[in-house]
Amino acid sequence: MNLLILGPQGSGKGTQAQLLSDKYGFYHLEMGNILRSISKSKNKHADVIANSINTGNLVPDEYVRLIAWDHINQYHSSVKGFIFEGYPRSLAQYEHVEEMLRKFGDRINKVIVVEISEEETIKRLSSRLTCVRCGRVYNTITAPPPELGTCECGGELTLREDDKPEAIKRRLQIYRTQTAQIIDRARQEGMLLEIDGERPIETIHLDIVRALGL
């Protein structure tokens, strides 16, 4: 089984993807973390990727497609299935993933959408802090750090460039205009699972598990 999990920024889709991965053996392909890691490296494409991330724009397809194929090709035979998070984010990318999986006689089986309001998105993201040293993420409302401005490892906590108001609005605009096309396609194909994301994490997880029959 291969799953695509979508939702506005801050919806908790990454948490749900990781829970499914940990409990059921899916490979969690989290494109955002992969791209952020590349953007901070000495990779020759780091500057292009970093600029896209920091301005709230999509990273060009040519980069994310190669990364996705590398992971699918490497892990397909050894995992129960994939959970794609942060990719695909446009209909063209969705069709790319379908094409990649068909090479293995496989497909995307379900598209999960974790829904939250725009107000909730802004509230959650503006409260999120990331450690510059270890990458740990805190939320000043729901999961604050032990000491203001400092991670448990001692690293400095900062607001990511793509979590600043201007970038948040840009990211939401992209989500609404491009990712919505994937949602429409999944609905037409009868493989869409819509989930209320403004509830406790475990409640959301159990709803997804039941709906997938896991």
Describe the structure in your own words.
It is a single chain. Helix content is 47%, strand content 15%. It has 8 helices and 8 strands. The strands form 2 sheets. The chain has a 5-stranded parallel β-sheet with strand order 2-3-1-4-8, with helices on both faces. It has a 3-stranded antiparallel β-sheet with strand order 6-5-7, with no helix packed on it. β5 and β6 form a beta hairpin. α1 packs across α8, α2 packs across α3 and α4 packs parallel to α5. The longest helix is centred in the C-terminal third of the chain and has 24 residues.
How is the secondary structure organized here?
Layout: E1 3-6, H1 13-24, E2 27-30, H2 31-39, H3 46-54, H4 61-75, E3 82-85, H5 91-102, E4 110-115, H6 118-125, E5 128-131, E6 137-139, E7 157-158, H7 165-188, E8 192-196, H8 201-212
Parallel strand pairs: 1-3, 1-4, 2-3, 4-8
Antiparallel strand pairs: 5-6, 5-7
Helix pairs in contact: 1-8, 2-3, 4-5
